[in-house]
Design a protein that fits this description.
The chain is 48% helix and 0% strand. With 182 residues, it is an all-alpha fold. The termini are far apart.
Length: 182
Amino acid sequence: MGPKRTAAANQVGRDVSASIPAEADGVFGLATGLGDRLDLELAQIWPRAVVHLGVRSNDAHTLYAVAIARSLLAAYPEADAGVVLPAIMLHDIGWSAVPPAEVLEAIAPGGGRPELVLLHEKEGARLAEGILAAVGVPDERAAQIVEIIDGHDSRREASLSRTRSSRMRTRRGGSPRTGWTR
């Protein structure tokens, strides 16, 4: 495990880096303990994802989210770690498509700029498709992961359509891997 990435400053101008441990076993590590295949997949996904996570310290946010998801998987054994963990790891890569000066506007209290939130979801889904294909994630599971990413901040209710992934076909303007339009 390497050192965590730290922000040079935060939005309130306070340096809190002294209170954050540089290393935290079991929090930032990518090993799941859930199987060699998944550990290898996540180890291949992370370097492809982290290049898109430089906005808003999303690299640290993502690693915290992965750690929380790993804990929740123990409480929900019916959940598929092979879908949940890659989806969490890739969920915010689309912020890299939003101009950095506009990111905080997008998530501002009182409504922000929902079109930018949607842009990050759509671009995140598009980028995730390429990453998942490069890593060799099977199409059906990749479609489930992409479905979670596409709408993760704007969807009113969590849902994963098992039938949606089985209807993979190309639609006008859609992706050949999922058939969804962007």
